[in-house]
Design goal:
Strand content: 25-35%
Order of helices and strands: EHEHEEEEEHEHE
Number of strands: 9
Shape: globular
Low-confidence stretches: none
Strand order of the largest sheet: 4-3-2-1-8-9
Helix content: 25-40%
Mean pLDDT: 93
Distance between the termini: 31 Å
Largest sheet: 6 strands, parallel
Radius of gyration: 17 Å
Length: 178
């Protein structure tokens, strides 16, 4: 995800907004949806939404953004592949490598370096139960985002960690109660 140059006459880079929520709900708060609509209007559509490839909440966000005409301005982040892309949105996929002989797996960052690694794996499927698999993807979305909209019940530890990650990066965070 490259930046455009700042030459005179060049189009401004879109505002990049991450959207996160709790995986145990498919409800997108009405005030979050209204904020999305307002930001689309205020930026004259010069906005991109960065979302995970999850189910429930994430799938609901994909549906809403498609309905708002933002299909081409939404990027779904995945590892090895995007699992949920019913609306043919843009994709950002990180490569997952598994080396069975070494019982090792890793995910590569954009620059080709290892972003996260597992050793002594008996079964590669075990990484899908490891929180650091999802934390890598979430951290990449946070890195590229300028701001974040987050649906949170105030208790979920994963979402709390995302909020902390964004605040450490000095990114504005807008929290919507669920």
């Amino acid at each position: 995800m490259e930046n455009t140059n700042n030459n005179a006459g060049a189009a401004a880079r879109p505002l990049r907004v991450a959207i996160f929520g709790q995986g145990n709900t498919s409800v997108v708060p009405a005030d979050m949806l209204n904020t999305m609509r307002a930001w689309i209007q205020q930026t004259n559509g010069n906005i991109e939404f960065l979302v995970p490839d999850g189910l429930r909440f994430d799938a609901s966000v994909h549906h809403l953004l498609s309905g708002l005409g933002m299909r081409d301005k939404t990027i779904i982040f995945g590892i090895d592949r995007v699992r949920t892309n019913k609306f043919n949105m843009r994709e950002k996929v990180y490569k997952l490598e598994y080396i069975p002989d070494e019982q090792r797996a890793y995910i590569l960052k954009d620059d080709g370096t290892v972003g996260v690694e597992w050793k002594d794996l008996e079964d590669v499927r075990s990484i899908f139960d490891d929180r650091k698999y999802y934390t890598f993807k979430d951290s990449q979305i946070c890195y590229f985002a300028d701001a974040a909209l987050i649906a949170w019940d105030g208790n979920n530890k994963t979402v709390s960690n995302l909020i902390t990650m964004l605040k450490v990066q000095n990114k504005p965070v807008y929290i919507f109660n669920i």
